């Protein structure tokens, strides 16, 4: 059975298994997709670093990556990762839902578990190579691959002891080693001056005693620490280099070690030991350089940066910062360490790397640079806190973490604060100023590399931000639909900038904000989030640009929430709200990017609003130009089909109308104004309303059209020529209809008889809007039962496909197939024929007006 085989294999790998005492656990589940492997690596790295297991993080991440890859990529199932912490190591379990995948067992003479040239089994090969113990366990539904990594033993010894070095490599000193000994009293004046001090600096004791040290000290000392001479004399212990002005006026570089003491009466003073700077090895605290084999080899120049950070240094900022906090923790045997980077204005510090602390929760959290009035409340100066329980809130980052002893030192480049490095321990009174000095030296050596890496990261972020904003601008510019603009705003922020997003809109200055759109990276949580936000008062509209916290959501939604105003055309049209869960914080760069996006999104949203308003106005005006409806004419079938060309147009240059003139008489018209769009629609409105008015005044067809022609010409530069078919219809008692028509430059109406014959029903006459004097005449005809009169605009007859055109003959051919059809069916068949004639959409307005006299049997 599989279980037995696995047990035998586990025995081969590690015969003895010690009892695992679990002190902490962390679990996560990952979907079967490629990006889950990276997410699993980050989960294990953050977990182990939070537990302080930096020594085994890399091996654990490599093994987890291989095992999760096997689960989500090769097996295609969900992977479940469980980390178990013990006092002496960690156990990681990776489970998948493919239990029938058997372990490739090794038999005598066969190949090993895996080799680098094969895809399968590589994770197990790595387990065998890296893990202290490992194994595989099967259940009915899961397969568990586990490995254990034990913590390496940390060497025990004198922390400050240097390596054994042959005599020829010892530092050089004068044959007569001279150490100047000074004592500084409570007023910072020199109270004691030994013979070596007189020899080195040239001042006799009587000329040195009583003078303030600041008079002869050439400050500053080590670049980047930012500590003045007066502040250095207040520290319990200080070590570093500066200059002393000799009796001959020359500045003599010295290396100094200051120790603050008090006499039997409790009066404090400072004992200063000073040597020539090139003899600093006499006083300088030695740097612990790890030795691999204890044997001395050919010496090479030691880079102080490499001594602290190790070689090769990580080439990415996050890796460099993480390595820094781990080395700082190890250097001072601390329980935790942290590194914060300063914002551009140096008013806040942003958490970027921690070890021994809940790093995921604290990442990108912010604390002020100046947290208090004393020097211990400023991140610009070194500080040692013996017990945080005595001064709660002194280090906001460490609240509720159990840490009590803390050292914090600044990172400075060319005198400018760029960050802060700190170490902490759970016990009180763990650190002195000597450890603070060592940490400050480490910070000085790492500061420039950190700043360089940070600038590189900012440049990459800047380029990525520009690409993001260009793409966002293109997407927002591609739509004028308000709802689509709201959706794009949210989709561009989630999950790129935030975990969830809510967009509030403001109709006008007197209206309250309205929750218009909600999006969460987990689609199943959108409805719940929307319900929660609906119960919270919306954020207050503020005109000032930039992100501001929104604390009202803390209780309802949880996590960090910021609000950015949507400002367009000097008014607030809404708010963009971004949120992250409780364990995450917004980076300053992300907030700045969101601010840029909000400005572009606000303008796009306002453009969509204006477009919607103008479209509504346009449609309302266009509808006013259309007839209110066709009247019911006794004994007649009437059907109208109208299509305006162009997106958003309901009225174009073509128009129609059917209206009552007086009892028993009805007027009808179908016309075509030159051109399309609003200008043509304006003439359309003039023509339709004038026809109704003139016809009801009792004028005949020619007189109506002559007066309309004069009205069009009166429009001057706005006038357009117009083709028009106008007529009067008089239903007859016997079932027919008398029709009087005038065809002014318009396509001729066609008459369809019941036997299928199609003939023109009028003669062509001059169009309107061109000349002043028109001599028009009226033609009379009678429609018999079963006859159809079809009237169209040239958008029908001039329908084209390449060089082909439907034309009058093509329309007549279509009409011959309509014998026996109702007026509605005739109009519909003509429209289908026009649409099918060409593949491209119609580019001209179309109007179809059909009249039919029902036959007697239909009427009955």
Automatic annotation (TrEMBL):
Stored Gene3D superfamilies: 3.30.450.40, Histidine kinase-like ATPase, C-terminal domain, PAS domain, PPM-type phosphatase domain
Designated name of the protein: SpoIIE family protein phosphatase
Residue ranges constituting the PAS domain according to the UniProt record: 181-211
UniProt key word Hydrolase: yes
PROSITE patterns, alphabetized: PAS
Keywords: Hydrolase
Domain of life: Bacteria
């Amino acid at each position: 059975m599989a279980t037995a085989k696995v047990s035998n294999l586990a025995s081969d790998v590690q015969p003895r298994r010690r009892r695992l005492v679990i002190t902490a656990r962390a679990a996560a589940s990952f979907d079967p997709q490629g990006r889950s492997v990276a997410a699993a690596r980050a989960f294990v790295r953050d977990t182990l670093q939070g537990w302080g297991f930096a020594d085994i993080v890399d091996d654990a991440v490599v093994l987890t990556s291989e095992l999760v890859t096997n689960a989500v990529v090769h097996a295609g199932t969900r992977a479940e990762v469980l980390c178990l912490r013990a006092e002496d190591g960690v156990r990681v379990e990776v489970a998948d839902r493919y239990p029938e995948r058997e372990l490739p067992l090794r038999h005598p003479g066969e190949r090993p578990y895996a080799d680098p040239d094969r895809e399968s089994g590589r994770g197990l090969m790595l387990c065998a190579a890296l893990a202290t113990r490992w194994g595989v366990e099967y259940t009915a539904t899961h397969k568990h691959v586990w490995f254990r990594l034990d913590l390496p033993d940390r060497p025990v010894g004198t922390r400050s002891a240097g390596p054994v070095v042959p005599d020829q490599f010892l530092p050089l000193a004068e044959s007569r080693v001279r150490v100047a000994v000074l004592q500084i009293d409570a007023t910072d004046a020199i109270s004691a001056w030994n013979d070596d001090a007189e020899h080195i600096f040239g001042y006799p004791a009587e000329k040195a005693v009583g003078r303030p040290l600041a008079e002869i000290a050439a400050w500053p000392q080590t670049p980047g620490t930012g500590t003045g001479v007066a502040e250095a004399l207040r520290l319990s212990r200080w070590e570093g280099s500066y200059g002393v002005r000799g009796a001959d006026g020359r500045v003599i570089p010295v290396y100094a070690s200051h120790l603050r003491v008090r006499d039997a009466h409790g009066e404090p003073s400072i004992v200063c030991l000073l040597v020539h700077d090139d003899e600093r090895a006499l006083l300088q605290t030695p740097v612990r350089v790890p030795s691999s084999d204890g044997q001395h080899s050919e010496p090479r120049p030691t880079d102080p940066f490499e001594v602290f950070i190790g070689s090769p240094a990580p080439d990415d900022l996050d890796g460099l910062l993480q390595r820094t906090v781990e080395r700082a923790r190890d250097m001072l045997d601390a329980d935790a360490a942290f590194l914060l980077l300063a914002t551009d204005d140096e008013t806040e510090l942003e958490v970027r790397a921690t070890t021994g602390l809940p790093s995921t929760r604290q990442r990108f959290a912010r604390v002020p640079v100046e947290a208090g009035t004393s020097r211990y409340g400023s991140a610009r100066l070194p500080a040692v806190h013996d017990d945080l329980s005595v001064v709660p809130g002194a280090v906001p980052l460490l609240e509720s973490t159990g840490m009590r002893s803390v050292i914090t030192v600044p990172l400075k480049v060319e005198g400018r604060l760029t960050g802060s490095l700190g170490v902490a321990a759970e016990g009180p009174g763990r650190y002195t100023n000597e450890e603070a000095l060592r940490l400050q030296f480490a910070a000085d050596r790492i500061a420039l590399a950190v700043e360089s890496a940070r600038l590189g990261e900012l440049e990459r972020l800047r380029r990525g931000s520009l690409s993001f904003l260009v793409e966002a601008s293109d997407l927002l510019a591609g739509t004028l639909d308000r709802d689509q603009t709201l959706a794009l705003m949210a989709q561009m922020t989630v999950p790129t900038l935030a975990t969830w997003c809510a967009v509030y809109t403001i109709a006008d200055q007197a209206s309250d904000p309205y929750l218009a759109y909600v999006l969460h990276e987990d689609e199943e949580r959108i409805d719940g989030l929307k319900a929660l936000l609906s119960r919270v008062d919306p954020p207050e509209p503020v005109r000032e640009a930039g992100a501001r916290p929104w604390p009202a959501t803390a209780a309802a939604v949880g996590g960090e929430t910021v609000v950015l105003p949507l400002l367009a055309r000097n008014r607030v049209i809404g708010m963009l709200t971004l949120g992250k869960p409780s364990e995450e914080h917004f980076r300053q760069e992300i907030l700045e990017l969101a601010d840029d996006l909000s400005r572009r999104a606000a303008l796009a949203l306002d453009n969509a609003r204006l477009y919607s308003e103008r479209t509504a106005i346009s449609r309302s005006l266009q509808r006013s130009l259309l007839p209110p409806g066709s009247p019911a004419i006794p004994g007649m079938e009437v059907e109208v089909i109208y299509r305006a060309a162009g997106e958003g147009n309901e009225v174009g240059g073509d128009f129609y109308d059917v209206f009552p003139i007086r009892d028993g008489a009805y007027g009808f018209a179908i016309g075509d104004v030159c051109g399309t769009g609003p200008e043509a629609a304006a003439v359309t409105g003039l023509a339709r309303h004038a026809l109704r008015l003139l016809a009801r005044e009792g004028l005949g067809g020619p007189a109506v059209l002559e007066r309309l022609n004069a009205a069009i010409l009166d429009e001057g530069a706005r006038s357009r020529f117009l083709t028009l078919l106008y007529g009067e219809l008089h239903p007859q008692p016997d079932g027919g209809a008398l029709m009087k028509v005038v065809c002014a430059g318009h396509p001729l109406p066609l008459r369809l008889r019941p036997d299928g014959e199609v003939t023109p029903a009028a003669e062509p006459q001059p169009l309107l809007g061109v000349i002043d004097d028109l001599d028009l005449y009226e033609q009379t005809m009678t429609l018999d039962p079963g006859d159809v009169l079809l009237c169209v605009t040239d958008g029908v007859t001039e329908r084209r496909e390449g060089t082909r055109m439907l034309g009058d003959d093509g329309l007549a051919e279509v009409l011959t197939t309509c014998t026996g059809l109702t007026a509605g069916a005739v109009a519909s068949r003509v429209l289908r024929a026009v649409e099918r004639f060409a593949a491209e959409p119609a580019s001209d307005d179309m109007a179809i007006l059909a009249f039919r006299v029902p036959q007697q049997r239909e009427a009955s």
